[in-house]
Design brief:
The structure is a homotrimer. Chain A has 6 helices and 16 strands. Chain A is an alpha+beta fold. The longest helix of chain A is centred in the middle third of the chain and has 14 residues. Chains A and C meet through strand 1, strand 2 and helix 2 of A and helix 1 and strand 2 of C.
Chain lengths: 272, 272, 272
């Protein structure tokens, strides 16, 4: 039998004892889980980053995986903690919208439970560290086979994050940079599908006009700023073997605009 | 049967091949352990940080866990390596006081062994990398069930780290900042218990007077500098949704002073 | 039975969803693997660093370990992906020379296969993220017991990285700094064996003359710049309790020269 998979995602930072304490508290309830670190270096309290992170990673995990997510600026206030069942997987998250991106791209509907059953929590609960005192022990109990209903009542409403969306205005696709990875690649929210369907006249990020649309980084010489379809199937702007973020001075939220000549079904450089 | 839990804590840095080599050397002896990374980004050779780290994390792990700790400025000198049994768990540490904080808060007494039995070590031992050549293979053998006595003789003395302690002088509680987390929160060594028992007149960190004592970050508006009881049950100073360390220019060692009106049993904002 | 060991090494960065997505894609094929993070913070697209990293770590792992390495500046171009069998272990690597250092120090010959069998890949393969879409699922299938021949045909040629080599010119050993660790220690490619066999007249790194040759850091006072034999059995230059890289302003590629008095069999301070 396979050990239950539990992943951990936090903004605690790479040298934090908080990550270690959470792992201990979880393993103390179920030492047989397989713990998988997703990241502990998410930008502090950045819910939009967390939302993108989860929608980029969670769908690839097998059914039955439990994802524990602690990006929690509201810790110790009245914010709820939720157990979400979605697509055969489960997430334990603060009710702050950090999973909105995942929900938007899901094909099925979630079941959501409010985590209130204190018998599953640590005996003492601090005001500032629910990751260790609530999330970790609850995750331990769930990994032992506790049904979702054990954590608390099912709920029908929760916080949604206001995520920027792209839109089509005549011959323009207007979006923005929603994620910058550690290579400095700029991922936008302009759908790859829209780009593939179009004959492109120009692509701009902020005031910078991108030189070429390519299929992959290797098609242009080092130092070129190119556009391509990202691994998330959205429009991406990258500097080949460099950092587009540094080169262009771009941050999350910078507008991205694609101008089309005429709508069409294919462009020469589109991926298959 | 559950795989034996072995945790790793080092100051080797996130991109270091040294962490990877240690993992290999440990798994070569026992490929069935469950390896848990606590952190590899501890500030280099900072024993006080390491001591705080361990006391904040180790107590949450289940009995039987083995913690391998390599923050080891004295590697290759005559410093000893110790196997410590404490609270049902074990630690493999350089004898440099990195576990002093853990010992001070423990309720039971440790059994300590000097690691000298070379048959458990790697065949060649380098002068600069005992993590790979001694700690890892010894941990592997211990995880296979070797009794503590196998590593070497029991000892009754070891290095203690000089940790700063807080003290009470009349109406003042005097301590200092002993740990700064990756959010920039300032954790002091002033006991939460003392704060809860007191009616607070003022709290200062260095020359900065803290505005309010709250129960959790969310009780004050973003940007406020607040005091609260930390998850380690000590006085903490934080900037809500910001970094108090950056805001106040504070480092570890900065004095923290709590002035009390009169001793009392409770304050309004104390955690339950 | 022990879970199959699969290690992951990338340059994706510590907060990247790409690492998480790769783990998910691998566990989706085989949820029973034991995943071991080697590092996800390798300098972006730095093949020489990756080569040193792998040769410093891989040899310590037990037979049967599968190492997945994604430092892949050529992703999406015609570069091949290779499955390498070497020394009883396996590596899944881009064909860009990232494993050249490992090969050079190996005593046996590799068997190498070109990864072309698409039935082992993700159903959709993006142009920019073969780590998730090819490496991860192929690793999953291999960990389930697929023989190497399943991934594609055996090949006899591959890309070799041009790694700098040290040489002996009369009384001089000439090498260079090939790796700088997170402590700022400078590791050269001058063989420890050559240093041990020599009576040393002087050691210089760039224009800086090193004060002493010692056996371990602890033999000289803090702040000293010393030479010693590294844990990789090459000449290393370090600042005791400090960073030689910062102190001397040295980067990878800086020349290292050892002048010998006369060849001899031992030096006083050589390790046993």
């Amino acid at each position: 039998m396979t050990a239950p998979l539990v992943t951990l995602t936090t903004d605690f930072g790479p040298r934090s004892p908080y990550v270690a304490a959470m792992k201990g508290a979880l393993l103390a309830v179920n030492p047989a889980v397989q713990l998988i670190d997703l990241s502990h270096s998410l930008p502090p309290q950045d819910l939009q980053y967390c939302s993108w992170f989860l929608q980029s990673a969670v769908p690839y995990f097998p059914p039955g995986t439990l994802h524990v997510v602690v990006v929690d600026p509201g810790v110790g206030t009245g914010r709820d903690i939720l157990l979400v069942e979605l697509g055969g997987q489960r997430l334990l998250v603060p009710d702050n919208g950090c999973w909105t991106g995942l929900l938007r791209q899901a094909s099925d509907r979630p079941r959501v439970f409010r985590v209130i059953e204190r018998s599953l929590w640590h005996a003492q609960v601090s005001a500032t560290f629910h990751g260790r005192d609530i999330f970790a022990p609850v995750a331990g109990h769930l990994s032992l086979g506790s049904p979702a209903e054990r954590v608390g009542p099912e709920v029908k409403t929760w916080i949604d994050l206001q995520l920027p969306s792209a839109c089509v205005k005549g011959d323009a696709l207007d979006g923005e940079v929603v994620f910058i990875d550690d290579f400095g690649n700029l991922l936008s929210n302009v759908a790859g599908e829209e780009v593939r369907r179009s004959s492109i006249a120009s692509i701009t990020v902020g005031s910078h006009r991108v030189e070429r649309l390519v299929r992959s980084y290797g098609e242009a010489p080092p130092g070129s700023v190119v556009a391509l379809i990202s691994s998330a199937d959205t429009l991406e702007v990258a500097e080949v073997h460099g950092s587009a973020a540094r080169r262009l001075g771009v941050t999350v939220g910078t507008p991205v605009r694609v101008l089309r000549r005429v709508p069409s079904d294919t462009i020469a450089s589109a991926p298959p």
